[in-house]
């Protein structure tokens, strides 16, 4: 289809969308594109009954926050590919995922849909997810562009963020993930520095297209457009969903000269290109429905994090186990909102999942649900007669959901108190937490011998937990976000905006960058996670391969009798800089299976971007000449090895030094 073959009215119609989930076809002239929600599984609407959308059954995969806790690029690829297989089954052309927004505050109700507080980790994993989706002939949609970091008043509050912070923290994951060439990008709801994302020409055109080189289609988030013609002028190509008034707004704007033929044709060409790509693509599912579930279990195993294991209480092989908590039987597999997945898979009770591995009976009781006690007496009795008691607590969709933010990092008091009471009958308490983001564990941490953070780990959560608890799988997840001691320790505290603006005054010091800059102790640092195996690091070598290119080599040895995977992390520190820089920043990582008694030589590449900061004065990325430290560790606060490099670029590329 050529633009020249379309009338003006047909062109304008193409920019409006046909309904909630498909694009306009202009009477069959243009192939239809069908889009659908689903960062954690396909949410495909198959019918509408009494105003309620009915969605198809699909595989409920772990949330992106759990994928990030896995630090496994291959798992991120498999996550995208597995969901795309469901897309193929339901003739979906574009999956509206993934989201790479930064976790600026642990209160954000949508944090479970996002990867990390770190832009490098978020961007690299998102790139793999996109490649996995598009390997099946299904397009991905990178979102929400950009600086949508709280949900409260998200359609109105302006994210007030300075240029350097915007480039280093909030745009960076998009820039990295765009390397995977997603078919589409979705704009955010919120204004950025006073201009709505859907109308922000600086971001949609000058940054996304001119600087980042994106050549696909830019669509709106649903109902995120406030003025149709201003959005088209800014670089938005497709408004979703269909709005009866949008065509008239665009037509009137054209007649008044507010919209030019060139601007209209630019957006129409993007819609046509997407339609042709979707029509030509050879969609091919690569996994059976059974294998998709197994993938969900495997990816959950990668991302479940062991936070505490006092006295090596886990694994619990050979011990008499009791399980309590409503979430043990009806786990919180995901948060609320557009990412909700309807799965037909019957999730086994955690007690049954453990029993199927051990062959021993595992007692179970409901214990406590989100806000009330249920059969507590039975739970106490079973705990008293067991060697070890697993209690599953957390937050459901009523508390963690798109469109709203949490008001606390704490669990409900009933859950905290239940753990404390349970410990009176059994000192060997293992707490499993199912939640979308960081949790304040202060109230019950002293009473728990072990703490496992499962997050929202999808339909395979109980099978994955059972395998970890019994030692069939060695835990290897590490936190992609910091767990503070208390909400008051975070930069934002309980502030999520004043209804007009959200302050980004912390600048580039987000997440672990903030805590380290100000010397704030944290409960569990970024990159932290325990294992049943034990690893030692040694023999750091740094090889220079270019002016700003290096390869970092080091050895990781498994000095235990347990096979395990270790996530090693490479951070860079600018020793003396002309601007305020973080103590260190993640610039590389590797997750490696190392068998008991064996060792592996790991290599991580660093390049210009590993050392650069964004210079507002020069309007470009700049690497200052000088000394840098290369830090290799098992978390952001557990550095095992360190080395130094010096960068000396031509003087004419450098500003004068102090």
Structure commentary:
The protein has 658 residues and is α/β, with parallel strands linked by helices. The strands form nine sheets. It has a six-stranded mixed sheet. It is globular, with a radius of gyration of 25 Å. The mean pLDDT is 96.
Biggest sheet statistics: 6 strands, mixed
Task: Specify the structural class.
Answer: alpha/beta
Number of strands: 28
Low-confidence stretches: none
pLDDT averaged residue by residue: 96
Output the strand order for the largest sheet.
11-16-15-14-12-13
What proportion strand? 15-25%
Question: What distance separates the N and C termini?
Answer: 59 Å
Rounded Rg = 25 Å
- Give the CA-based shape: globular
Helix content: 25-40%
Number of DSSP helical runs: 18
